[in-house]
Every structure is written in C-alpha cells, then in structure tokens.
Amino acid sequence: MAVGVFDSGLGGLTVLNALEKRLPDVPFVYFGDNKHAPYGVRDADDVYNLTTAAVERLWEAGCDLVILACNTASAAALRRMQESWIPRDKRVLGVFVPLIEALTERQWGDNSPPREVAVKHVALFATPATVRSRAFQRELAFRAIGVDVEAQACGGVVDAIEEGDMILAEALVRSHVEALQRKMPSPDAAILGCTHYPIMEEVFQDALGEDVKVFSQANIVAESFADYLARRPEFIGSGTQSMFLTTGDPKKVSARATQFMRRKVEFQSA
C-alpha cells in the first residue's frame, strides 16, 4: 500500500513530513534525485526525462500512486506525462492545484467557471524553471479572475538549502523578496512555490511583513492527498515498506535529511 513521493532533492521532505503526520498508517517511499538537483535551472525536456525516470523507479518499488513533491517537475513535466505517458493503472499527482484551491477557497474537484476571489495581488516565489513555465498562472486562471500575479525567480535558494548553508539561503530570500516588492510593493498573499522554501518560511514572512498571508504547500498538499486517497483507494500500490531512495551519495544525503527532518533518516541508492 506504499505511496511514492518524488523531489529533485531534499525539499520534498517537507511534504513527506506532513503526509506522514496526516496518514500515519500509509508507508511512503521517498525518491530524491540529489545527483541532478536542482531542477529549477534545467530546461523542460531535461526535467521531463529525469522525472519520468524517477517515477518509473517508484513504480518498481510498488508505488502505483506518486506525488511530485517538486514544483518544477509539477510545472514543467506533469501535464506532458498525464497526456501521453502515464498508464491507466497508475496515477501521478502534482502540488500546484491543492495550493491554488486553498488560495481561491475552492473545494477539490470544483470545476465551476472562474470567479473573483478575495486575494487580488499575489507574489509567487519559485525556481527559474517554474517561473518560466507559467504553470501557476495557467492553473490559477481556471479558477479565478482579476488576480494579479507577480513571479520572482529565486535563483540560488535551493542550492544553498541543499548544501546546508542557511545563512546564504536567508540572505538570498531577503534579496528576492526585495526584488519582488520593487515590482509589487503590497501583495495580499505570497506563494512559496517550491517545496524547499517552507524551510525558510519564517524568513519569507519576516521579509514580507505580517500583513501578507504566506501560503506554504506541505500541510495543504497533505490534506488534499488524504481526501484523494479516501476517494481513490484503488491506486494504493502493492509496496509495504517505507524507504528513502537517492541518486546521490546516500551517506551525505542521509546526514542532511536527518537535519531537516529532526530524526534519523537513512537513504539508500536508488
């Protein structure tokens, strides 16, 4: 009954942690493509090829249902995968839609026409590849009208987090927030459009100010996925063991993951 969770590196552990708390009886197999991280600087074809390879590995581990806990993969690869690659007996879900549903106060599966919502000015912080894809704006347009989105490509933040350099990560976050505010001085809300960014959520909030509502993905995705699983239990796979897989150095990745999760985490080679 295992479910796969994929990210280009360690950021998806924020989603995994929320999923484990929400669904303690479900075994999760986490796959981090640390060898090729970060994805945010890669082109769409590269992201697609790396993501499909990772998803196939999770299918081999008995995970018929895989969550792309990576905004870049969700933005640059998921639609193409769903249109032409994923077989009928498998499912791959992204992390964008639950976030937009929360932002627009919609229930899952609400396919009514787009309407005006309370939030009018939204700051989007994401990787360069996610910003280039415009996937967030495209999905938002299906659900809301009259929302101004200003995107800020946050180069370097993921690299700093992956290397454990939180001083540099904080400095970069504050620099990117300042750059965003020069374009949109008073956003109503801010989207942390990368699963690495919740690690820096307090810094984003402090830099933006207390009047800006910051939407972070982990808990939102966990709640949405629990609802999905209740409705579609047939996609729970045959795997029974939780495990952590990486394309990187298992010892190094395990050490970093243990810091992030605040419990011992042991990765094995994928």
Describe the protein in words.
The two termini are 20 Å apart. The chain folds into two domains: 3-94 and 218-269, Rossmann fold, CATH 3.40.50; 97-216, Rossmann fold, CATH 3.40.50.1860. It has a six-stranded parallel β-sheet, sandwiched between helices. Strands 8-6-9-10 form a four-stranded parallel β-sheet, sandwiched between helices. A two-stranded parallel sheet has the order 5-7. The longest helix is centred in the middle third of the chain and has 18 residues, at 166-183. The mean pLDDT is 92. It is built from twelve helices and twelve strands. Helix 9 runs parallel beside helix 10 (201-208). It has 270 residues and is an alpha/beta fold.
Q: Could you give the topology of this structure?
A:
Blueprint: E1 3-7, H1 13-22, E2 28-32, H2 44-60, E3 65-68, H3 71-76, H4 78-84, E4 91-93, H5 96-103, E5 115-116, E6 121-126, H6 128-133, H7 135-141, E7 144-145, E8 148-153, H8 157-162, H9 166-183, E9 189-193, H10 201-208, E10 213-215, H11 217-231, E11 243-246, H12 250-261, E12 267-269
